[in-house]
Amino acid sequence: MSKQNVAQEILDFNKNAVKESFEALNTISNQAAKAANQILDATPNVPEEGKKAVNMFFKENEKGLSSQRKFVESGLEIDWTSPNASAKGLEAIETLYNSAFSQVDSLQKETSELLKKATEQLPKEAKPVVDFWNGTLNSNYQSFQNFVTQNFALARKVMGDLAAEAPKADKKAATK
Hints:
176 residues, mainly alpha, 4 helices, flat
């Protein structure tokens, strides 16, 4: 058996393992969502906002699993022996992070309404604490997102600089 055949069999095995793993995760997640809904439906004292939050969690989890699956599968499709493999790998990672940031943004918007309704039931003294906690959480998330975005920009710049310098190094080596 040639090295190419062995490499292809390993790649095929990994692709199948990824596919089966994500199918198992989806099944587990779907079953957990059904169980949570049954428990919430059987518990009369759970406010409607709480039920919506749990449902939202499972929907966003499903979107996250889908994004992660696409990322992992795209990583398996990259020819890691090609000169531009690192740029394609960085692009795939950045796509995953952008997808995750988009999901968090939509989740923040949806949960802000639920949070407002939930805090209406609290004593007025508790509302500033909840608002402070929520504001701090969102602020820290924004700082993290900015940090990650700047790191991707820096990584692209470094990769571009390295690519620009690589031919010069080859020419110097060839003249010696």
